[in-house]
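User: Hi! I have a protein structure encoded as tokens and I'd like to know what sequence might fold into it. I'm fairly new to this, so please keep things simple.
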């Protein structure tokens, strides 16, 4: 197993939100978007 990091990404100016996982598994880079949503017209 390699190192993994969970990140919450907030763009409150444009109402974009994301939960992502980043890291390494041996020599392989891991990038996963777990959850992404936008708020438009007050709706998710």
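Assistant: Happy to help. Inverse folding works backwards from shape to sequence: for each of the 44 positions I chose a residue that suits the local structure. Here it is:
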């Amino acid at each position: 197993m390699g190192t993994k990091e969970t990140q919450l990404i907030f763009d409150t100016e444009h109402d974009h939100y994301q939960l992502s996982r980043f890291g390494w598994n041996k020599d392989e880079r891991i990038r996963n978007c777990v959850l992404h949503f936008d708020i438009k017209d007050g709706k998710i």
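A useful reference point when you look it over: Residues 4-38 form one domain. Feel free to ask if any position seems puzzling.
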